[in-house]
Amino acid sequence: MELSERKKKVLRCVVELYISTAEPVGSKAVAQMPDMKYSSATIRNEMAEQTTMGYLEQPHTSAGRVPSAAGYRLYVDELMAEYRLSNDEASSINTAIEEKMQRVDKMLEKVARLVSQATQLPAISATSRQGGATVKRYDLILAGENSVILVVMLSTEQVVNKLIKLPLNITDTDLKLLSAVLNAAMTGLHAEEFTAELLQKVMTSAGNAGVLVPVILDFVTETLRHQAGTDMAIAGQSRLLGLPEYRDVDKAQKVLSSMDEEALSNLPAVMQGENGTKVLVGPENVAQELRDTSVVMTKFDIGDGMHGVIGVVGPTRMDYAKVTARLSYFAESLSKLFNKPENSQLPESTENQ
Amino acid sequence: MELSERKKKVLRCVVELYISTAEPVGSKAVAQMPDMKYSSATIRNEMAEQTTMGYLEQPHTSAGRVPSAAGYRLYVDELMAEYRLSNDEASSINTAIEEKMQRVDKMLEKVARLVSQATQLPAISATSRQGGATVKRYDLILAGENSVILVVMLSTEQVVNKLIKLPLNITDTDLKLLSAVLNAAMTGLHAEEFTAELLQKVMTSAGNAGVLVPVILDFVTETLRHQAGTDMAIAGQSRLLGLPEYRDVDKAQKVLSSMDEEALSNLPAVMQGENGTKVLVGPENVAQELRDTSVVMTKFDIGDGMHGVIGVVGPTRMDYAKVTARLSYFAESLSKLFNKPENSQLPESTENQ
DNA sequence: TGTTAGCACTCCTTACCTTTGAGTGCTAAG
DNA sequence: CTTAGCACTCAAAGGTAAGGAGTGCTAACA
User: Measuring from the CA of residue A44 to each C1', which nucleotide is nearest?
Assistant: First the structure.
């Protein structure tokens, strides 16, 4: 069933007025909108009808209307005007990403912080991967008398290292052998393939430096397992408190602590398969605590089957157009960044001086 | 000037009652405390006197008394009974630390989370170092056709790495030369000593692989600066909202956002030199936003001139005895953990891409 | 038939007033 | 020096009234 043009227009006005004022919207206010050609009485009828249809709600008889979850849904799906980022916004996002992404190990944290800044809402960023990573190569560097640096390159092009202290002296030749053995026997394997038998086999053939094998294996499996899991960061939680709907401390606390906990760590799972930007309006959230909170999230590509998710949490009354636009742009820029490694840091900025 | 025994006893009662009830304390309530041998009238006089002395405050004429900052100070310094952790508490902290500290790069985050759990307050954990780190050695590993792994070992024995993609082919010999040049010219330097002239000099003498120098230099300075600076994590912010003093959303927001921002990143600086556990009561905090919030923090040792700080943020009315006891125990346990090197569970490792 | 002006009605919000009671300071007696 | 007694203070709680934004409905109008 399609709604009439007028219905759509009115609903859209109500949603947008409510988004910007956070107060129930009266027929008069709608009538006063620039290109609204109807009187408040007509709009009153319209709104009454839409209330029975379930798109609007009335807090009490003599109050204005507030969009229902269904109303928001319709708005997001059909009525929302595409928000086009200004060049300023776009380039400020780009330069922010560019500046902050120096250290990848803090990546998630920084992304979350940036997204939160851009949207003025609490933000979450997370990574997850479909399959498991494997090891691509091992290198061993003798560093001083009795320590060796293990450098491991993963199939994801990520490089991790570990400093290992040696109880006894091991020569460079020993390390060369060990390294050769490792690269021959222990590459291309998933976390669960590092078995005790493999350990035995590698240890015996690694000769003198074989004592290092258990430590190395421990480290590698731990790393791979960690890779497979989900890592996440949260930023800007305090922004929630600035919003009128969270003047109610209990409400705010529920939302914030469900962010703190794992309640939202299924965020990447929700995005499984999906592409583009996903909006969960209020009750569409599974978690009970988020019943009157909306979540907007989007995926970005890290390459090699790995992807990340960024999302924000806010009141159902949030500026979906702006938020989705900014989030998508972020995701796009991040994807570019990660998939263009030669270009050391810069995602192609649309139109930057 | 020493206070009389009776004065101390009364003050202590007031503080402890207020800590547990969050309501202004009346003379009657104090008189009813188990070992209080005076009538409410006597205590009334006592409290009136302590009010003029500045240890107590009266929200309004007909209300009970609330400890002032000076009152808390006195309590913390002299009156507070040492809280002894039960075996249960101690061992649960220990097992928590042991279980969670698998990966060092997430260490801060996990410590913060644990501390927050143990104290039921928002917690911060941070690391900082006294001097600045320097680079001890560079290694370059050719990894595939057109990428090279830079491995940098710092004076702190920390190892960091970065994968660099090459636009043109560079031979192993080129890298050997570059590596030699780097190790000769760019070790032992602090972040601020990496000047433009140095860059020029190294670039010219590095021959073919000289193009890599700017990237390397960028990475290294950023890393050193990062080392010198403070790294920190926050957890459990939402717990603040459960406390009656932060029912006022504006107040809560001020505190939370000053945690989010750098306002508290001077936390390690505050601990500079100091040892043991430090309590900052309300206005003793420099930051304006924290005027009616207390901070308790303590240092722990990571070894190699590096130390960490853990702290919690809460209302001036907080259970100082419990909180300081738990915090100290945490710090102690962490110090032990970090200074037991054969316990190989804690590699100093850094991930990079 | 769709649109609009008018109007009575609803009911939340705000302000103001009163009551209540916990807690005080002071005084006088023990 | 301590304590009982008492008048006083003032925030908190509750109740009432005025104000006003917004509605639904009806009737007139294009």
Answer: D23
| Residue ranges per structural domain of chain B | 5-79, 87-122+236-339, 135-228
CB of B152 within 8 A of CB of B160? yes
**Rounded to an integer, what distance in angstroms lies between the CA atom of residue A34 and that of residue B114?**
55
Q: What is the pLDDT of residues A217-267, one digit of tens each?
A: 888 887 887 766 667 889 999 999 999 999 888 899 999 988 887 555 566
Class of domain A87-122+236-339: alpha beta
Distance B72 CA to C18 C1' (A): 39
User: Which CATH fold topology does A135-228 show?
Assistant: Enolase-like; domain 1 (3.30.390)
What CA–CA distance (Å, rounded) separates B236 from B61?
37
B88: burial class by Cβ within 10 Å (0-12, 13-18, 19+)?
exposed
Lowest mean pLDDT among A54-68, B85-99, B319-333: B85-99
**So what's the pLDDT on residue A348?**
29
Phi first, then psi, for residue A104 (nearest 5°) are: -75, -25
| Interface check B137 vs A, CB under 8 A | yes
Domain B5-79: CATH class, spelled out: mainly alpha
Residues with CB under 7 A from strand C: A 6, 37-42, 45, 59-63; B 23-29, 40-41, 44, 47-48, 51, 58, 61-65
